[in-house]
């Protein structure tokens, strides 16, 4: 089934989300861009003249720098502030952090009605659901009216997709580096528990260690996995090597501290960030040879949402059973490739919601209708998701956030 422009439209409005592939849309009053990933801005380019583009401030800078879209068509909006959209009948939109990639947002759209309360639509864009979202002042239940339509990122709406929290995955990667550095006699890492929070100014010291840590990322995306690079670099008193392309993208984030830590000289840094597609044994073996004798050992991380799968959460289990099952758990990362000079680890790290997280997100909000936005290619897939949503909605016993140890995950 081919998507139409109506699949991208807030019902009852002339506002569309991530619908740039359609070009000019008649009577459209606003084009919303949830985040800067290529499949969401198809056909958006320097020749854009079709109407105003609403997005976050980070996405605005990326659109101008990378796509050369004229600034007079871009309307960056602040986070967490209701903004009236010009040309509409007092429709307002609030941007909420989507916990996906830098600049990614959800859109809370409020549409006034003549003889009834306003309609509230929530479009998640691409997101990874977490407890903090459900505690947002404009979403928290029961303080707020229901969500009339939830346009939901259903990328991993299948019981086989279960992965640990982002925080867990980052800590596991840090533990791997600590073990490797200690084993090989490099400068030791200590106080790993504080690795993600320390903000000490780096001094540009000569790198004497022989192990280089490599992290794969997309051109934009899996940027929270970049915390691995950032934290380890601080502990090793090292800069982070990035490509010129990556440097240009990171400059759009407005993070001065981060920019001070970056270098385009690979031998100046013990931590390297390279394109995810380059994390292959043959590529990395050649890469470590190119860095010798400065570096002689390499530890590489390949973050991917496809690494860790489990069938413990069966598709037909009740919502209560899914909640009580707990999140997927891991205590150690195992290498997927080893040689005398190289170890590669795959991290089950995702910036989309797991099956369980989607269930908890739905359980925590008062939602009247759910519209899936991913995997809607045929009637069978749509029907399967619709049946699941209907069952979960019926099983919801109370409108409260499901408890879990941390605000940033369930």
From TrEMBL:
Biological processes, Gene Ontology terms: double-strand break repair via nonhomologous end joining; interstrand cross-link repair
UniProt KW keywords: DNA damage, DNA repair, Nucleus
DNA repair metallo-beta-lactamase domain boundaries: 257-377
Superkingdom of the source species: Eukaryota
GO cellular component terms listed in the entry, alphabetical order: nucleus
Subcellular location(s) per record: Nucleus
InterPro entries: DRMBL, RibonucZ/Hydroxyglut_hydro
Name of the protein: DNA repair metallo-beta-lactamase domain-containing protein
Species for this entry: Rhizopus delemar (strain RA 99-880 / ATCC MYA-4621 / FGSC 9543 / NRRL 43880) (Mucormycosis agent)
Taxonomic lineage from the root: Eukaryota, Fungi, Fungi incertae sedis, Mucoromycota, Mucoromycotina
